[in-house]
Amino acid sequence: MAKWADLVAFVRSEYQVVDQTPDEISIYVEFEDERSQVIWLSHEVLDGKEDWVQIASPCGLAAKVNLPALLKEVGHTTVVGGVAIMGEHVVLRHALPLENLDINEFVDPLTLLAGTVDTLEEQFSGGDSF
What we know:
Layout: H1 4-14, E1 16-21, E2 24-30, E3 36-46, E4 50-61, H2 67-77, E5 82-86, E6 89-97, H3 103-125
Antiparallel strand pairs: 1-2, 2-3, 3-4, 4-6, 5-6
Protein name: Sensory transduction regulator
């Protein structure tokens, strides 16, 4: 998978798409415990030449989350992703280069990120808003 369009075609065939623009696609991931998570996939271009996909998902509103506790938890328990504030949300995000990307190199981090951010959301926001 070497192009954004290829990744989008795969995502559209395998996941429930919530929204799509030319450089972003949002999907809905459901878990066995009836919880769910919205995941934002964004096409990013590094240094004007390298295509990447950014995987991000919100776990709470920045104004309402105990950021030091969240950062400590992520530092101790998270393998995939880093915490950032995007707009008004605290998100867990990860990025991958599209060139020579194998499908498992996308699906595995996406699955790990979705499960982790859902757990963080429950722990730090006390619900299932995203």
